Amino acid sequence: MRVTRPALTDDGQVPSRTVAKRSVRKARAREAQQRSAMPRADATGSPTRPPRGFWLGALVAAAVLVPLAVIAVLLFGGKDDEPATPASASTASDETQTQVQRLRREAAVRDKEQIQELTDRARGMVDDFTPVIVGLGKTLPPDTQRIGPVASAKKVDDWRARVRKADEYFADTVSGETATNVARNGFSDAVDVLLETVETYRLALDNPSMRRALLERVRSQRDLAARAWSTAATQLDAINIDAGFGHQHVVFPNSAGSAAVPPDDLPQGTDSTSPEGG
């Protein structure tokens, strides 16, 4: 290859025009190198973008890999949390059972207190009612249709005061266990009927012309009161046994006749499991 040397001046130097041309060529060469390093552009001058198929492939890969990653997290990551749920549920269940047991113990204690109070009160009522039942028996002997001498108005007023006192006790509603409520309501009904018996007797005293008919009504009411009391007393005996106090017999005096159902012949406190029984 033939190399053309530039002509020199008389003093042996390269002409300045030649030097300027070389500088221009070097600048153009550097510019060409810089352009080759930049992203290629299309005919419009915009940089060349990756083909559409590239992006479609990326989207498909993401659609497959992302759900797989989520499932893996749920399957393997969730296992560490599973023991916490049963442990928490077990703790809540234990607390609930403990609370239920506590409430049952409190209810049992309250029921025993109510049973003992009702038994003591019923015994006191029998003592208060004895003059009433005995006086009614003198006028209306049990198990016969005979009518005996009537009591004085003053004595009947004393009967009324005794029964009303008992009736006021049952005016206050007390909530307890079902069996205890049944006994209490039974005694309350018996006292209501006995109070009506005394009121009818007093009415017979004030109406001599209707006395016999009214006294027959008194006889029926007295017998009904005795039967109601006996039923309540049987229930009272049962709940005392269940509460551990053993047999407790609270019945009308014998003056009520066969209408008053006698209790069993077991001594008081039999079958007691409580030191308070007997």
Structural features:
mainly alpha; 6 helices; rod-shaped
Structure overview:
It is a single chain. This protein is mainly α. The protein has a domain at 112-259. It is built from 6 helices and no strands. The protein has helices at 16-37, 52-77, 84-139, 153-169, 178-206, 211-243. Helix 3 packs antiparallel against helix 4 (153-169), helix 3 (84-139) runs parallel beside helix 5 and helix 3 packs antiparallel against helix 6. The longest helix is centred in the middle third of the chain and has 56 residues, at 84-139. The N and C termini lie far apart (142 Å).
- What fraction, in percent, of the residue positions are helical? 55-70%
Radius of gyration: 56 Å
Q: Sheet with the most strands?
A: none
Query: Oligomerization state of this entry?
Result: single chain
Mean pLDDT: 79
Q: Runs with pLDDT <50, length 5+? A: 41-46
Taken as a percent bin, the fraction of beta residues is under 5%
Note the overall shape: rod-shaped
Number of helices, where a helix is a run of at least 4 consecutive DSSP H or I residues? 6
Distance between the termini: 142 Å
- Structural class from helices and strands? mainly alpha
Beta strand count: 0
Order of helices and strands: HHHHHH
